[in-house]
Structures are given as structure tokens and as C-alpha cells.
């Protein structure tokens, strides 16, 4: 039996701009955490996962960049105040 290949991402480039904020929203189980693990260089090749891309940040590989300073992860649990702006949500999550 041949397993279907599931692509977490399709080829892309230039998804972020220096000094900008990008929000990743999707339903539970859609692959947000896997995507972020790939972006941060924490996703490992295994029997179920094949990494076939190069991710660069201004020309630097993810493992060579301090991504903690560049990224924030806001939990799936909605504990924010409805009037909060994205910047306020980021500051609370930090």
C-alpha cells in the first residue's frame, strides 16, 4: 500500500517582511506547530517527516539565528481581551 504524501507547505518565498508581524491562524491539527518547528529548525527528519527545503532569514539559516528574539507563539486557548491589538497580544505572550 502506498501512503499519500501530505505537504505541510508548498514552495514559497518572501513570506515575511523585516519589521512586520505575520499571524498564523488555522484550525487545531492543521500543522501550525509543525510549521513553526520547521521555521525554527527544530523539525527533525524521521520515518514520517521529510524536510525538503531550505529556510533562510535574511540569508541566514534558522539554526544560526536567535529566533526567540524574532518570534512569538500565542497559545491556542483564547485568553485575550477582545479589544487587544496584535501587538498587545504579543507582549502578553512574551
Describe this protein's structure:
InterPro entries: P-loop_NTPase. This is ABC transporter domain-containing protein. A two-stranded antiparallel ribbon has the order 1-2. With 94 residues, it is mostly helical. It has helices at residues 32-39, 86-93; strands at 56-57, 60-61. It is 17% helix and 4% strand. The protein has a domain at 32-93.
Which features would summarize this protein structure in a list?
single chain, 94 residues, mainly alpha, two-stranded antiparallel sheet, 2 strands
Give a brief outline of the structure.
By secondary structure, the chain is mostly helical. Helix content is 17%, strand content 4%.
* Strand order in space, largest sheet: 1-2
- State the secondary-structure class: mainly alpha
Give the helix level as a range of percent: 10-25%
Overall, the morphology is globular
Number of helices: 2
- Rg calc: 15 Å
Average pLDDT metric: 71
Largest sheet: 2 strands, antiparallel
- Alpha carbon gap, first and last residue: 46 Å
Query: What amount of the residues lies in strands?
Result: under 5%
Question: What is the number of E strands?
Answer: 2
The ordered string of helix (H) and strand (E) elements is HEEH
- List unreliable stretches of 5+ residues: none
InterPro entries: P-loop_NTPase
Protein name: ABC transporter domain-containing protein
Topology, element by element:
Blueprint: H1 32-39, E1 56-57, E2 60-61, H2 86-93
Antiparallel strand pairs: 1-2
Protein name: ABC transporter domain-containing protein
InterPro entries: P-loop_NTPase
